[in-house]
Amino acid sequence: MTRSKTIRAATVICLCLLSASTGHAYPKSAPWSELERYQETITRKEFEHLLTRFYNPSKVIYRYLDINDQRVIIYNDRGNSKIDFTLRFAPNEASKKPASFTYKTVSDLNALRNPPNKPLQGVKIALDPGHIGGKWASMEERQISWASYPLIREGDANLIVSKKVKPRLEELGATVMLTHEISEPLTPTRPEDYMAEARAEGRSGGALRRQAEMYFYRREEIYQRGQLLKNKFRPDFNLSIHFNATELSGGGTITHDNRHAFFINAAFGPDEVDREMWRYFLFSKLLERSIPMEAAMGDSLTEEILKVAPLRANAYAWTKYTCPINDNPYNNGRNLAMTREFPGPTVLCELFYMNNPWTAARMTAGDYAGTKYIEGAGGTYRSIYEDYADAVVNAVRRLFTQWTVEGYPKPPPTVVTKSWEAGPDALTTVAASASARHAATHSTNEVAHLLPVKKR
What we know:
eight-stranded mixed beta sheet
């Protein structure tokens, strides 16, 4: 066995052992007792602001709550017959007890006083290459081919970017973990393990297999990654790396639109709050109070990706399932599994549309050093994976430098590209950079000339 194969085999064994150590079944009931550390650390006013502005704008969650100035009771059922958890509020800001957060807050980061060349010293960052890839890509519906373009497996592309980012963040002083380093699942379970559950829900035929597969790669795999981070790493920040695509991609349809988006956990929908585990995650994320740091990271990432690919925002408006996070239309609030289940501040990056010809041509050109002419993209480019990695590294460096080196005492505003109806307590309102403002407010064709193209 070659050295590379030995390392690969050891990695698989290590990941399986880590997974086995955290259990392999998505829990049937929530660990509410883990929220005890937040007793009397938050006032009712702050709690309800976070709840109704971000985590449940539809306010349907109140059917599970009994709330007054002293406490909130969270019930297990709509009939309010069984209590899951009671959270005591601090009477006022002055009497708030210090919370035991699992991540370094801005104040903690200020205290590091890092040298400028090592702004990430003492910081733990988790990189999650989205999806699994490899032989699992077809099952995940993340294996895309259309027209004359070669096959794209998103999970594999996400791994390329993540493996570029990791050593560069380490050079800046960070301790970095990848949730997986090969195109294999972290969970030791397989779709067959969920057939009985899917069958008990009334599934049959192809729908039975499909539901079991979704439990495997979507529910269990992401939960296991979250448990790995929670029990083995305890990150200060999580970044999940993805390439995006439109809903037309599954049918092999090309789009000439091309956009970027960042997702932050928020906006649990009316039916979603009916699930106990999801209610638990809602309140767990709310009590973490990580949204200001997540919004700042989304702003920093926006600024950096627009330097190399100034595409429009894939912006989500106010709905029962989505909400703007701040005045930056690239920052979207949505209840996604990874942002819901990873501990600490978390941003999911969804960059480019893979079923856009320009993106597809660059992705299928592969990863390479320097620049080369790409026929389908109409110009000379660096690797798209290099551009993506550079944007992530530069965004993390710039943001954490403000916290750990310069001692900025709160999440610094960086870019706002459009005014949103965010209510009186919107997080940030500052002027937009020219490139960001142009990209957010003009059509794709109008910004095409801003792409880093150099004609042969």
